[in-house]
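Structure ticket #2291
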Amino acid sequence: MKPIDSNDLINYVEDNIETFHAKRISSLDTLRLSKVLKRKNPYLFKAKHVLTAGEIVKGLVDAHISSNEETLFGDWLEGLAIFINNQVYGGWKSGIPGIDLEFDHASNRYIVNIKSGPNWGNSSQIAKMKSDFKTAQRTLRTSNSKINIICVNGCCYGRDNNPDKGDYFKYCGQKFWEFISGNNSLYTDIIKPLGNKAKARNDDFIEAYSKRINMFTLEFGDLFCDSNGTINWKKLVEFNSSIATSAKTQQKT
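Resolution: structure written out below.
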């Protein structure tokens, strides 16, 4: 075990956080109104008595951003965790499906599935993870029957006060970062470098966000508002939910 050097940590975060910010902006630049309109429930907007195109557009874009950023930053944190573990324990990005990180410590082989937070999946998704763990164990034991394998679901934030799940361990927040690094304060140490240059990059994001809101509002008005400015809910629901033309044609034939 070799403790992570604070300068190496800072350099990695500052060198790689740009990837996250660039993907945030790219996601907005490639977003299309038709795409987000088809994902959301138009009846909900009507039930909430939404009266303006701007309010609908902002709700659609904000929902997309929230979901997308969680995924993007989760992927970024996974990369950070693997980097830190590699520096400390010599761990590596696993090539086994469903496993993100492998490393050896104290005569054990740890196989880790990394998630953002503790409430990441339903029962079927958790069952899939457990199945992936079992498959990975069989794969590893094919080449080394005596290897002692410990399965871990690591969550980058949050808490779980009952980590022993029987088939695997679940380490969250401080416990996870300590597990991969041997450092019980790492979970707070990574905060400072994350904030470096964040304001400048967020200003770029806000500019891209504002342009997208304005563009979509104009487009929504052209497509789904009557000449007097009233939202045409029939048109909106038809766009979201009507049977596709190809399907109608097939039914007639």
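Closing remark: Residues 247-253 have pLDDT under 50 and may be disordered.
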